[in-house]
Amino acid sequence: MKLKSIFLAILGIGIAGVAGFAFYARQPELPELAEVGRPQFEPETIEKGRVLTAAGYCASCHTAKDGAPFAGNYPVTTDFGTIYGSNITPDPETGIGGWSPEAFRRAMQKGVDRDGAHLFPAFPYDHFSKMTDEDVDAIYAYLMAEVEPVRQQTLPPELPAPLDRRFLQAGWKLLFADLGRYESDLSKSELWNRGAYLTQGVTHCGACHTPRNALGAERDQSALFEGAVIDNWHAPPLTAANPAAVPWSAADFVAYLSTGSTRYQGVATGPMGPVVHQGIAMLPQSDLEAIGTYLASIVGAPDADPAGNQVVIASLEAGRPGRDWRMEPGARLYATACAACHYNAREVSPGRPDLAINSAARLDDPANLIQAILHGVSASEGTSGVVMPAFAGAMSDAEIAAIASHIREGLAGLPAWPDLAAKIAMVRAAGTDH
After folding, report:
1. How buried is 10 (Cβ within 10 angstroms: 0-12 exposed, 13-18 middle, 19+ buried)?
2. 306: nearest Cα among 353, 265, 254, 345
3. Which of 84, 199, 332, 377 has CA atoms 20 to 30 A from the CA of 169?
4. CB 203 within 8 A of CB 56
5. H helix or E strand, kind and range, residue 427
């Protein structure tokens, strides 16, 4: 009798749990917006939306290679499978043309589309939820008023069952998503709070720079901006753990986000190229300074002259030609292929990155340096108009390993990367979309 009571109690709790989850997961379909009923927008709202859409680099995940802007089907590769960016042009049948502002807000801030389906968390609604309704509405205004409608169905996700079930995403949301709006820290300045709002919300920097758990969710606040691997690149930590020899100051962040490069830390290439040049750089200078203020407060950069940094001085000395400069294969290849653009004599010159102090050479993961050597830096990345050639077709894996080892060990004086040859082979085999 006692066992039967226990069984019935467990069964009742289970049924109540399933019913509660079903109630939580169910979201109503919102009314379709007729084309004649679309709201009109003020020009300044549309322009604000254009800037915010760029700063959120919406086009990156909603535009397929050689596809129409915002028409979707960009493949977002995750550890669980591939999810395709949706069509967010104002096409009424396959895009968001039938969405009201309320429906768009729900998608951005709660991760639920107009039909009531939960969105996959590859879409960073857990960041956009921090945005104000006014900013979300501005993005809606821009997409509806300025983007050409494109009739194109979004491809279904390529995920194993049951991960492809939309209603299960509600469970992920329940476990991991904080959908609250940004709340100002009253102990900080208005500029700092503006930077925190932009960084945590629209620019969603943490989506790439925060490590994720086994279920694909960003780890807790203690791991915020601690760095992560994405698309075979390594998004470096945006904290004091950042390995750049010269810690990032607010001015460095502003320079990087507005021009794509800094004098001492590196350039925006790979996935970060469009994020900067077609994205965050569109923000007004005041917003860039706010982001710089916020991020610099996390890095905790000291107020010191980089020219006096001992690592910088050591790097300049290590790069100076000597009698045995070309005896070692890596040094010889470096002198032939790299030094013409990367050699600095007495100081690090703008536009001439010193690789030994660069983040790419100092990360524990060599992926970023390998990517740059294999695939180069195009004119649309890094410093605008400055091109670094790709060496994938000109050098073997062994030659690239020799150069990378010379930079890492010979110039930076850091321990060798383990399994470097295997890493190079893996990155080469994966190719590049950038």
Report:
1. exposed
2. 265
3. 199
4. yes
5. helix 420-430
Query: What are 211-216's contacts with CB under 8 Å, separation 24+?
Result: 213/176, 215/172, 215/175, 215/176, 216/78, 216/79, 216/80, 216/121, 216/172
Mean pLDDT over residues 105-117, rounded? 97
Instruction: List pLDDT tens digits, range 313-335.
Output: 988 888 887 767 677 889 999 98
Q: What does the mean pLDDT of the chain come to?
A: 92
Alpha-carbon distance of 355 to 334, in angstroms, equals 11
| Alpha-carbon span 292 to 294, nearest angstrom | 5
Of 82-96, 233-247, 313-327, where does mean pLDDT reach its minimum?
313-327
Q: Residue 420's pLDDT is what? A: 96
Judged on CB neighbours under 10 Å (0-12, 13-18, 19+), 236 is buried
pLDDT on residue 1: 60
Report the alpha-carbon distance of residue 10 to residue 154 in Å, rounded.
42
First to last CA, the chain: 67
* Helix, strand, or coil (residue 418): coil
Beta bridge partners of 118: 112
Report how far residue 255's alpha carbon sits from residue 54's, in angstroms, rounded to the nearest whole number.
Answer: 18
On the 0-12 / 13-18 / 19+ scale of CB atoms within 10 A, 239 is: middle
Q: How far is CA 370 from the centre of its chain?
A: 19
d(CA 258, CA 284): 9
Q: Using CA atoms, how far apart are residues 109 and 106, in angstroms rounded to an integer?
A: 5
- pLDDT band with cut points at 50, 70 and 90 for residue 434: low
The pLDDT of residue 19 is above 80:
no
Residue 365 confidence class, pLDDT cut points 50, 70, 90: very high
